[in-house]
Input
Amino acid sequence: MAEEIQWDLVNPFLMTITVKADETDRLGHTNNQVYLKWLEQISWQHVESLGMDWAMHERLSRAMAITRTEIDYLAASYDGDELLLATWIDKSDQRLTSSRRFQLVRLNDHKTIIKAQSFYACIDLKSGRPARMPKEFVKVHAKAISAHCLKQ
Output
């Protein structure tokens, strides 16, 4: 299934989704806020799978906070649609910032529904101010980026 999809990058981290009726708007489309919720869910699932769980964040008093998200809506999804959401950490300056890409695909026709990118800054959990990434974060980001190299 996922092997047949034309992903923007290789080795995506994946999350399956079935659109529910209460996630649609008056037009019958998936509500824009729901896409943001899914992007956040897969982001946490991905970093946790890499060993960056919430306990690590608390212990280091650091987190990656979203500073910007860009979403391109390419097609609509509807109640009952089966979707596959992919994500990749694609950049990190290994000091303060990183970025993550997303691609959401409808499974029945492999149509890309959205493409998105989020940008992050490392913050201190106590002050909320920008703070240098701990070496543990740098290591996780580097591991993820090396696994998700651009297609040729």
About this structure: The chain is about 25% helix and 35% strand. The longest helix spans residues 32-49.
